[in-house]
Amino acid sequence: MPKNSQELHQILVDRGLYPNDAAANGDLAFDGYTLLKESGQWLVFISNRGQEHDVESFKSEEAAVRRMVERMRNDVFRTVFFDIE
Fold first, then answer.
1. Which residues lie below 8 Å from residue 50, measured CB to CB, with a gap of 6+?
2. Cα separation of 11 and 5, whole Å?
3. pTM value?
4. Residue 31, Cα to own-chain centre: how many angstroms?
5. How many structural domains compose the chain?
6. Where are the beta strands (DSSP E) in the chain?
7. How does pLDDT run along the chain (85 residues), one tens digit per residue?
8. Which domain holds residue 43?
9. Contacts of 71 (CB under 8 A, 6+ apart)
10. Is residue 84 in a domain?
């Protein structure tokens, strides 16, 4: 499991998911999962045409990273994240 958003973002880049399907570096994904820090909270949501959907907020970066990986595993990206514990 990635320890922070930087590690998660690198995984997204390495697996070809950034920037279309997912982003964890403060950018919005074009049409997919986004993790970013805003007003002291960590947010995980689906970005679709500039709109935020299914927003969840977390106090810790670690919890937000864990949740984003969990959400992606339960979606079409489960085969991409099969090896992340």
1. 28
2. 10
3. 0.91
4. 12
5. 1
6. 22-23, 31-38, 41-48, 51-58
7. 899 999 999 999 999 999 999 999 999 999 999 999 999 999 999 998 888 999 999 999 999 999 999 999 888 888 877 787 7
8. 5-73
9. 33, 44
10. no
